[in-house]
Amino acid sequence: MTALIVGGDRLGNIPQVLNDKGIDDYIHWVGRKKGMRNKTIPTNIDMIIVLYDFIEHNLANIIKKESRSMEVPCIFSKRAGSDLAMKLDACKHCNRCCT
């Protein structure tokens, strides 16, 4: 499973959390600069994780809109491994992603 992570200058222990939850590959966009709005979301991803406390506001809205049009699950989380683990577990129970 591949995830696009948007936000956060450094990921800290997030790669370990992803690995524990079965997400073995990820792409990371920092998401702080205006130019990030023009990036194209890769088509080979299974989910999008937005670290909302480290992202430009308009980019968050663009990501949300694009994830809906691509029908890719999108999780909004703080940049804390514990919060992300909780959100991924909740996502797993709703059967939309993280199978």
Q: Which terms summarize this structure?
A:
single chain, 99 residues, alpha/beta, Rossmann fold, four-stranded parallel beta sheet, 4 strands, UCP020408, Dihydroorotate dehydrogenase
Task: Give the % helix.
Answer: 25-40%
Alpha-beta content class: alpha/beta
Broad CATH class: Alpha Beta
Strand order of the largest sheet: 2-1-3-4
SSE arrangement, N to C: EHEEHEH
Which stretches of 5+ consecutive residues score pLDDT under 50?
A: none
**Sheet with the most strands, sense and barrel status:** 4 strands, parallel
Question: What is the number of domains?
Answer: 1
Task: Indicate the CATH topology.
Answer: Rossmann fold
The appropriate CATH architecture is: 3-Layer(aba) Sandwich
Shape: globular
How much β-strand is present in the residues?
15-25%
What is the CA-based Rg, rounded? 12 Å
Average predicted confidence as pLDDT: 82
According to DSSP, the number of beta strands is 4
- The CA-CA distance between the termini, in Å, is 9 Å
